[in-house]
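Inverse folding, one chain.
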């Protein structure tokens, strides 16, 4: 596997990296202060066992800290580069069309990447490079055929039909 297709590396454009870094800065600065203020205000209301506002603020704090850990890890593993413009090789950030079992009428088009990194909603079909399908097609080109193991143990054959940079 080439360096460009490592499942440990997260490839980001400079713009995506800057957005994630700004989110991390906000969460570790003003975001933490806001949640701490909510917790302090709720504490002043009295009995913490029956204080819904306190428990909600603590839940928010836990979610925020999890996002901070996630962002820190993503930025630590990030490699910043230009979007892959002219490549026909399957890599994170590419939109890929595959055919199942060589059947050109049974196709699927998806983004290979991370919904969280790209800030996508659930409408976009996304596969992680670490998924069985994603790891099987990394580095492949149109016309390449691969077989991967589905989570249920069955082998699934796919043919890469088309690879293009993702346009958000």
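Residues assigned per position:
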């Amino acid at each position: 596997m080439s360096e460009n297709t490592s499942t440990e590396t997260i490839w980001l454009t400079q713009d995506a990296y800057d957005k994630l870094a700004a989110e991390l800065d906000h969460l570790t600065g003003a975001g933490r202060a806001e949640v701490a203020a909510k917790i302090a205000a709720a504490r002043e209301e009295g009995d913490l066992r029956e204080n819904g506002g306190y428990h909600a603020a603590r839940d928010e704090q836990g979610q925020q800290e999890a996002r901070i850990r996630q962002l820190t890890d993503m930025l630590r593993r990030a490699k910043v580069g230009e979007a892959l413009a002219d490549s026909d090789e399957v890599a994170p950030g590419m939109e890929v069309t595959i055919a199942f079992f060589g059947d050109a009428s049974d196709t699927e088009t998806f983004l290979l990447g991370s919904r969280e990194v790209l800030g996508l909603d659930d409408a976009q079909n996304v596969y992680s490079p670490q998924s069985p399908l994603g790891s099987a097609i990394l580095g492949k080109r149109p016309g390449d055929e691969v077989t991967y193991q589905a989570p249920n143990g069955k082998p699934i054959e796919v043919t890469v039909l088309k690879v293009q940079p993702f346009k958000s």
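Residues 1-6 have pLDDT under 50 and may be disordered. The first helix runs from residue 14 to 43.
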